[in-house]
Design goal:
The protein has 315 residues and is α/β, with parallel strands linked by helices. It has 2 domains: 11-217, TIM Barrel (Alpha-Beta Barrel), CATH 3.20.20.70; 223-310. 49% of the residues lie in helices and 15% in strands. It contains 10 helices and 12 strands. It starts with 10 loop residues before the first strand and ends in a 5-residue tail after the last helix.
Length: 315
């Protein structure tokens, strides 16, 4: 559907969604993009969804006409794990001119997986995204597709070796969303039928964890503000957790509240933070941390008073 926009190999644009170096973690199957299997579901989805759409042809397309029909609907074509061995089909997909998402076959080695991407490039289409879709194992009860386990180490190796963006196929299992982001996934691929819980877990990992582990570079105000929002989301969770820990300390200390503040420890804390945030430095961090500490102390005091009022007097 969309014309391919050539970016550096480290980033690929699918519709208006950029995936790769310096970009936020994309959730495909969530609010960022959709993907479906088969021409009929693609037609139905395209009628209701104006955003980026990835299509995996159902079975093996019978010829160029089928791929041409997919190209009219899709912003990218998914080479499914089950048919990456059909190299003639891979070449035909590459020649369509849309970005290609190459899933790893469940028994494919790293070299075999990367070779499929190289075939696309040889056909003049270097806009390739790699997708780790797992290996068949005996852990059928603990995997997202019955006997298939994601290899996040292999996914990371594929990214380092090829320089291409990588996705992690979560299926309908949200448990690995955070691990995939921490391992360097540029995007999370959800099953077309994934539950709302899976989608929410994927978006939470893409928002909060990615803000901590993933550098981003933006050239537009709106994109930079979106990145700040993700950092603020992570900051809110950390502040809430810190407040809870501070409340625990107030209950355990012999002298709590403002009278029990340890100013020497607070100065050491600010100095340690300044080593991690040298641009801010101690002078700027000190009032920030003072405000955070005082907010936690006020909260602990309010919760203590509330607890005292809720506890009936003995008698």
């Amino acid at each position: 559907m969309s014309h391919m926009v050539q970016l550096d190999r480290g980033a690929v644009r699918i519709g208006d969604l950029a995936i790769g170096d310096g970009m936020p973690v994309a959730v495909i199957g969530g609010e960022h993009a959709r993907w479906v299997r088969g021409r009929v579901p693609a037609e139905e989805t395209r009628a209701a969804w104006p955003g980026p759409l990835l299509v995996e042809p159902s079975g093996e397309p019978s010829g160029a006409d089928d791929l041409a029909a997919v190209a009219e609907l899709a912003d990218a074509v998914v080479v499914g794990a089950a048919w990456t061995h059909d190299l003639d089909l891979v070449r035909a997909v590459a020649r369509v001119g849309l970005p290609v998402v190459v899933q790893r076959g469940h028994t494919a080695t790293l070299e075999e997986w990367l070779a499929v991407a190289d075939i696309c490039a040889a056909e003049g289409n270097d806009q390739v995204v790699l997708c780790e879709s797992g290996s068949r194992t005996h852990l059928a009860g603990r995997t997202h597709l019955g006997g298939v386990t994601l290899d996040l180490a292999l996914m990371g190796a594929a990214r380092r070796r090829s320089g291409r963006p990588v996705l992690a196929d979560l299926g309908d299992d949200p448990a690995l969303a955070g691990a995939a982001v921490a391992a360097g996934a540029d995007g999370l691929l959800l099953a077309p039928s994934a539950s709302q819980a899976t989608a929410e877990a994927a978006h939470e990992a893409a928002t909060v964890l990615a803000a901590l582990v993933r550098p981003e570079a933006h050239g537009r105000v709106g994109d930079a503000r979106d990145a700040i929002d993700r950092v603020d989301a992570a900051l809110a969770i950390l502040l809430e957790r810190r407040a809870g820990l501070a409340g625990t300390i107030q209950r355990l200390k012999p002298v709590g509240g403002f009278r029990g503040r340890d100013m020497d420890r607070e100065r050491r804390l600010v100095a340690a933070m300044a080593r991690r945030a040298p641009r801010l430095g101690e002078a700027r961090l000190a009032p920030v941390m003072n405000a955070v500490i005082e907010a936690g102390l006020h909260l602990a005091e309010e919760e203590r008073r509330g607890s005292d009022l809720a506890t009936p007097e003995a008698g």
